[in-house]
Design goal:
mainly beta; 4-stranded antiparallel β-sheet; 1 helix; about 35% strand; disordered C terminus
Length: about 120
């Protein structure tokens, strides 16, 4: 099944699913986001990140989505999906960033206990 086109063409973006929403963030020269409602089958504009996110990572643990910048800084999407907040609990160490500029997450960082705020 194909999806309707996003509002913006993207390359180097990240995405993850939270409940019934596909969240697409960043990409080359982009700090904005788009949300695809899997039940309504529609795209809407999502919250912007504070800076461009190219080749970062996105992951969902439980009902929490995280954006992981190449610097190792982590942001969490609010449950209302209307803004990003700095996650002060977790920072991915710089040694965990692989040579291709994509974070390599150590196993302990993936536990919900570690990442949940």
């Amino acid at each position: 099944t194909s999806l309707p086109p996003m509002r913006n063409t993207r390359v180097g973006h990240s995405c993850s699913v939270v409940l019934t929403t596909l969240v697409v963030i960043g990409g080359a020269g982009s700090q904005d986001g788009e949300l695809y409602d899997l039940t309504k089958k529609t795209w809407t504009t999502g919250p912007s990140l504070p800076s461009v996110m190219y080749n970062g990572q996105a992951l969902t643990i439980g009902q929490n989505m995280f954006a992981i910048f190449m610097s190792g800084q982590v942001m969490k999407l609010t449950r209302e999906m209307d803004q990003w907040q700095w996650n002060t609990v977790t920072q991915i160490p710089k040694w965990a960033v692989r040579g291709n500029n994509r974070p390599l997450l150590p196993a302990p960082q993936l536990s919900e206990h570690t990442l949940a705020c």
